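Look over this entry.
=====
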Amino acid sequence: MALTKEQKIELVAVHGKSATDVGSTVVQVASLTKRINELTEHLKANKKDFACRRGLMILVGRRRRLLNYFKKNGTPETYKELITKLGLRK
């Protein structure tokens, strides 16, 4: 369920500062959100796939840590913009 090369390029184009900006916190959070959404759809159809559920929980925790880091070290305006753009609750 990994992202394809085209999907990664699209995420970097939308969220990154440049075409090679793949390591910034914003791009990492966007990439994780895309993967989390795909795994959530998979789990809706396959309720007993507990290995996938565990992987999903790991990704959600990783995204939460990155968001906490970005909230602490980034500007509040960019944090709120990222949250609204990705459709996250917090």
Observations:
- The chain has a mean pLDDT of 93.
